Amino acid sequence: MGRNDLLIRTFPNNTITFRGEVSDETCSVAINGNQAKPVVILPTVSAKELAKGGDVAGQVTFDIGLTGCTGNTDRATKISTVFVGNQVTSNGNLGNTGDATNVEVQLLDTANKVINLTNGFKGEGDLQLKPGETEASATYTAQYYATGAASAGTVEATLQYAVSYL
To answer: Where do the Fimbrial-type adhesion domain residues begin and end (predicted)?
Structure first.
């Protein structure tokens, strides 16, 4: 038995999947104008505002903007926003990796409805390029969400995002 045979038998789940997309439309994507490592700053709030489970506070909006799109001159192009949370909680929110306790980060869609990230989120047509236009944006909201009486401390959560032209 050769070395490669041993590796294949030892690691039967050794498949790498590559995914991509070919589209008639391409754009540059930015969050609040930042294309690299965007950060959305939530306001400092008192722990008293997050005294019991279900309390929310500190709403802040953030924009996903597209620029430099090639633009279809004949018809509008619907573009969807895709979010995949890191450390999604049982409530479907973003888990806090900071030291404040009983606090999650909850997202709201462009219609101000709570986004459940348990299975990811695809905002179908949240962004729309009108015929001949090369820019579009969509506004989302982030807020603190209490799972119990919050303690003082830092709050940090992460999310991966993409746009889909399909």
So the answer is: 16-165
